[in-house]
């Protein structure tokens, strides 16, 4: 019997940063991308000086993970698992997230709120990003680490990217959670690492950390 290849890309190390290999269509200084080339041609045809401010990008070096300090990952993954437990006690799916600044300052924390609100976007990480991006400036978020009890889904990884958070550390791999659930529930088999690898600024991804402990909040583990 031929087994279909897994849609998940296996990590060959427990901890690694997202690849810095850029897609040809991702905009960087070296590879401006198709839309930038169209823009340059349009500017060349136009009369008068170009309004370059309208096309400026934030300096890429502002958001590199080098600016993120070393933290005690197990301590803060455990805090995210505690948030997951609190979310479950309040009638929501057991997912939690904690945002930590350099030096270990807890900036914010959130749990999943889908069960109580009926809002399908109420994932712990998205709830956390929504609040934190209104409270903290991008430079502060670039030096912060988001700890998640379970690997962020594609929606939450996108929110983390747009918030310019510098690093993600997660407990349970989404792939393992899907294996635990079997056919029950929806599955979006796209890893956090793969989503963030498509961005034009780097977000470090670390995990799994304390995976068995993170899995234990699910009754199906
Ligand atoms: Zn999510």
UniProtKB/TrEMBL annotation:
PROSITE patterns with a match to the protein in the record: CYT_DCMP_DEAMINASES_1, CYT_DCMP_DEAMINASES_2
Top-level taxon in the UniProt lineage: Bacteria
Gene3D superfamilies: Cytidine Deaminase, domain 2 (3.40.140.10)
Keyword field contains Metal-binding: yes
SUPFAM superfamilies xrefs: Cytidine deaminase-like
Keyword Magnesium attached: no
InterPro entries: APOBEC/CMP_deaminase_Zn-bd (IPR016192), CMP_dCMP_dom (IPR002125), Cytidine_deaminase-like (IPR016193)
Occurrences of domain CMP/dCMP-type deaminase (ranges): 71-188
Keywords: Metal-binding, Zinc
One Pfam assignment: dCMP_cyt_deam_1
Compositionally biased spans, kind Polar residues: 17-26
Sequence segments annotated as region (Disordered): 1-48
GO molecular function list: hydrolase activity; zinc ion binding
Entry protein name: Cytidine and deoxycytidylate deaminase
Organism of derivation: Salinibacter ruber (strain DSM 13855 / M31)
């Amino acid at each position: 019997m031929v087994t279909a290849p897994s849609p998940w890309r296996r990590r060959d190390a427990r901890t690694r940063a997202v690849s810095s290999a850029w897609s040809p269509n991702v905009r960087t200084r070296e590879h401006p991308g198709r839309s930038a080339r169209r823009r340059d041609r349009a500017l060349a045809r136009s009369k008068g000086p170009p309004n370059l401010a309208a096309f400026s990008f934030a300096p890429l070096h502002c958001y590199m993970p080098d600016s993120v300090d070393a933290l005690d990952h197990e301590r803060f993954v455990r805090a995210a698992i505690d948030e997951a437990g609190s979310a479950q006690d309040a009638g929501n799916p057991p997912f939690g997230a904690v945002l930590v600044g350099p030096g270990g300052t807890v900036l914010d924390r959130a749990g999943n709120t889908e069960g109580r609100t009926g809002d399908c976007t109420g994932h712990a990480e998205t709830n956390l990003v929504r609040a934190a991006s209104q409270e903290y400036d991008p430079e502060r978020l670039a030096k912060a680490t988001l700890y998640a009890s379970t690997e962020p889904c594609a929606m939450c990884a996108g929110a983390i990217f747009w918030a310019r958070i510098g690093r993600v550390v997660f407990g349970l791999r989404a792939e393992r959670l899907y294996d635990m659930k079997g056919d029950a529930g929806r599955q979006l088999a796209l890893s956090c690492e793969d989503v963030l690898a498509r961005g034009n600024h780097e977000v470090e991804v670390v995990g799994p950390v304390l995976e068995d402990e993170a899995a234990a909040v699910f009754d199906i583990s």
